[in-house]
Amino acid sequence: MYTQAMDSMPTEAKPTLRSAEELQLQQRFDARIDDGQFIEAKDWMPEHYRKTLVRQISQHAHSEIVGMLPEGNWISRAPTLKRKAILLAKVQDEAGHGLYLYSAAETLGTSRDEMFEALHSGRAKYSSIFNYPTLTWADIGTVGWLVDGAAIMNQVPICRCSYAPYARAMVRICREESFHQRQGFDALLTMMRGGTEAQKAMVQDAVNRWWWPSIMMFGPPDDQSPNSEQSMRWGIKRVSNDTLRQKFIDAAVDQAKVLGVTLPDPDLKWNEQRQSHDFGAIDWSEFFSVVGGDGPCNRERLAARVKAWEDGAWVRDAASAHAQKQAAKAVAPRQAA
Ligand code: FAQ
């Protein structure tokens, strides 16, 4: 980062000169952010910007991978071949999203092993929503409709995130998320339009259980969101937690009407003045308890990820042994020559 000329200067002169250079780099970085330019992996960036990105992108990656569990649980029980093929493709897509995102985080200098270790030791977070159980087939449709719907609402603005590798990954991810939302809505519509009374009741029950956790996905209210101000200043987040939550609620109300389900909030009503829906109080104690590790499925989800990591040890060992052999073969002919 620093020039050789500076390294050869007397020690006492270094701190001032270094900070002068850093100041200049910081000013250039701030100007680029203000100008709406993208930051690439090789560009200079403040350490706090780098750390914030690693935190958000790795947590996002973990969410995609842990998010495979509640839906993967239903692949063998999908009601028709068509629904099974769709669900299989969706769960595979989530794995792909996780891999794009881990790659984007790696460009910031954090290894995938470090990120996995943070997840497995419980230090890293993943989305609160994946700590709820998928009890019936209607839960799978509801996850697609509400959870993927909330994910798209949150993720479309990240396609314009100031960190280019994250923004590029998000463009690809959002294209797939919109298919995910549609397939969930379609599965629910099929049950609500042509299903039995029991199937309709099953859909309503799933919506009742997933509604509040889905609107919590956007994170704490803006005035209790410690990272928002700085992340918005840096263009990592483009839209605040509360604004996205409101947009999601407004969109979901109309979709619920098409489906013929009731959203479980008696205070939900159109506010003519705000041109938005008012809604009831969110139970933030539930959110913080789930994020803190005490949700209905936190232990089960983490145990499944740790087991998958341990079961995969032989694959990682075999791949490294193969890579070592290949490297040795590449060196051997050169030595013989
Ligand atoms: N769950 O200051 P803020 C998906 C934490 S992907 C758990 O507002 P920030 C696709 C937050 O990390 C879903 N923790 O934080 C799919 C922070 O803690 P920390 C994931 C949460 O970062 C569908 C603390 O609270 N999407 O669904 C949550 O500015 C179906 C204070 O919060 C993303 O990750 C939460 N819901 O804003 C897959 C999108 N909310 O780290 C499979 C990218 C907040 O300081 C099946 N991420 N926290 O210890 C973001 O947009 C942001 O990180 C937010 C949080 C908006 C999630």
Q: What structural category characterises the helix and strand content? A: mainly alpha
> What share of residues are in beta strands?
under 5%
Please give the order of strands in the largest beta sheet.
1-2
Query: Main beta sheet: strand number and arrangement?
Result: 2 strands, antiparallel
| Beginning-to-end CA distance, first to last residue | 39 Å
The small-molecule ligands in this entry are: Phenylacetyl coenzyme A
Overall average residue pLDDT? 93
Shape verdict:
globular
Helix content: 55-70%
Low-confidence stretches: 1-15
Radius of gyration: 24 Å
Succession of helices and strands: HHHHHHHHHHHEEHHH
Number of strands: 2
Number of helices: 14
In a nutshell, what does this entry contain?
With 337 residues, the chain is an all-alpha fold. The chain has helices at residues 4-7, 14-34, 47-66, 68-72, 81-106, 112-120, 137-155, 164-194, 197-216, 228-233, 241-259, 284-294, 298-311, 313-336; strands spanning 269-271, 276-278.
Describe the protein's architecture and organization.
The chain is mostly helical and 337 residues long. It is 68% helix and 2% strand. The protein has 14 helices and 2 strands. The chain has helices at residues 4-7, 14-34, 47-66, 68-72, 81-106, 112-120, 137-155, 164-194, 197-216, 228-233, 241-259, 284-294, 298-311, 313-336; strands at 269-271, 276-278. Strands 1-2 form a two-stranded antiparallel ribbon. α3 packs antiparallel against α5 and α7 (137-155) runs antiparallel to α8. The longest helix is centred in the middle third of the chain and has 31 residues, at 164-194. The structure holds Phenylacetyl coenzyme A. Residues 55-56, 59-60, 63-64, 67, 71, 94, 125, 127-128, 143, 147-148, 151, 154-155, 217-220, 225-228, 231, 237, 241, 291 line the site of Phenylacetyl coenzyme A.
